[in-house]
Amino acid sequence: MKNEFDIAIVGGGPVGASLACCLATSGYRIAVLEKVPVNADQQPSYDDRGLALSLSSCRILKAIGVWQDLETGSVPIKKIHISDRGNFGIVRLNAHDLGIDAMGYVVIARTLGRALLNKLVASSDIEFINPAEVISLHRDHSGVSLSIDNGNTKQDITCKLVVAADGSQSRLRDMASLNAEIKDYHQTAIVSNITADISDKFTAFERFTSQGPLALLPLGNSDFVSVFCVSNNNFQRYMELRDDIYIDQLQEVAGKRIGNMKMLGSRYAYPLKLVRTSPSFSDRVVMLGNSAHSIHPNGAQGFNLGLRDTACLAEILIKNRGYPEFDPGAKSNLEAYQAFREHDQDRVIGFSDGLTGLFYSHSMVKTVFRNSAMTLFNLMPDMKKKFVMMAMGLDGRQPSLVRGLQLEQL
Ligand SMILES: Cc1cc2nc3c(=O)[nH]c(=O)nc-3n(C[C@H](O)[C@H](O)[C@H](O)COP(=O)(O)OP(=O)(O)OC[C@H]3O[C@@H](n4cnc5c(N)ncnc54)[C@H](O)[C@@H]3O)c2cc1C
């Protein structure tokens, strides 16, 4: 096994694996270190969750040759229906009104993982070291050395840049002496697959309720993934309910718009916190994906935002690759990356956090305000277009891959 690399990516979850795929033909010597064995039913990043991918994510995945493996199994989101349970506010978004086929696509996280990992193991420039847990990091002015525990043995590798894509509880963050601001939402997302007798197969539903938001993302054939965010005080009770009782409760919250619901699979729980590492880099180490910012799933934006960050970092690294003496870990690259991405990150994080404040509130004033705002917003096509462009990750200054360029054009 090789020991010397240009770039070490710690974490083979969706963000780390996507960065590796972006850099697969760049000529950099890349190591991807993932602690959970790849054969992994236990790999938590690649479970049966449906992920809503925005159009910007689809473009990036297409440019790196991964979307082609996902397209057939993905389900288009043609309409979005947003409601506030027990109140009058409704927002309807329709791809057709915006002149597009779909506002995004739902893919199963496990399918995404398989496509990304297949792509990265096929690259001769990438060494996928698995299982491999990074247990320590040492830096000097010329590079970084990482100690890895791969079950039976320990080994060291060196590199010029470490990309820490090791999730919201990042150990690399501590190793790199970076700090995270953490806001506990005191909520847990309960995820389960359901089926419903509804013919509207390409509509995503988001319903704000006094327990927390419920999202239903279409999986095709009248199946949906339900993401029900409930207060931590109640979540254990929901987890312990019998399937038929849980589905009755979900039905009560969802209403009859989606038809009669039936349970398809198990329930999984994800505690919800806003985590943001600021600044997102220190000498030769940069945080990416959930280790940089982990957000509430209410807007289905976490991976989409992380993927746009990934496309930007890859672009900076690829564009400068040809310069003699170019150092991928140089502070100037990481500063340029952060400056480019800050605006999009602030906006998406602020939007998602703001939604939790506005919609998870029992105050009468806020309830009247949000329902009036929803009703007004629903009548404003230009505002809706602006909003959808933001949700699709297509507005403002975006990396070249989001603008439709291909890797070889960078
Ligand atoms: C309920 C729910 C629904 C969601 N729905 C959506 C959605 O619809 N759309 C969307 O865009 N986003 C969604 N998200 C967010 C999305 O799941 C995350 O943004 C995404 O998984 C982050 O990926 P990541 O690669 O940064 O981190 P992770 O998936 O956490 O991966 C980190 C990886 O690093 C590995 N690792 C950790 N420590 C080490 C170490 N020391 N050494 C080596 N490896 C290590 C881990 O094993 C893991 O594989 C949702 C999130 C939740 C909770």
Describe the structure.
The protein has 410 residues and is an alpha+beta fold. It has one domain (7-182, 273-409): 3-Layer(bba) Sandwich (FAD/NAD(P)-binding domain). It is built from eleven helices and 21 strands. It has helices spanning 14-22, 55-63, 67-70, 109-121, 171-175, 232-240, 243-254, 302-319, 331-359, 364-378, 381-391, and strands at 7-10, 30-33, 50-54, 75-77, 79-84, 90-94, 104-108, 126-129, 133-140, 143-149, 154-159, 161-164, 180-196, 203-208, 214-220, 223-231, 261-263, 268-277, 281-282, 285-287, 293-294. The strands form four sheets. Strands 5, 6, 13, 14, 15, 16, 17, 18 and 21 form a nine-stranded mixed beta sheet that branches. Strand 1, helix 1 (14-22) and strand 2 (30-33) form a beta-alpha-beta unit. Helix 1 runs parallel beside helix 4 (109-121) and helix 1 packs parallel to helix 8. The chain starts with 6 loop residues before the first strand and ends in a 19-residue tail after the last helix. The relative contact order is 0.17. The model has no long low-confidence stretch (mean pLDDT 93). Flavin-adenine dinucleotide (FAD) binds at residues 10-16, 33-36, 45, 49, 51-52, 133-134, 165-167, 171, 189, 191, 227, 270, 289-290, 297, 300-304, 306.
What proportion strand?
A: 25-35%
- Distinct small molecules: flavin-adenine dinucleotide
CATH superfamily: FAD/NAD(P)-binding domain
The pLDDT mean sits at 93
The DSSP helix count reads 11
Largest sheet: 9 strands, mixed
Q: Which ranges are low-confidence, i.e. pLDDT below 50, for 5 or more consecutive residues?
A: none
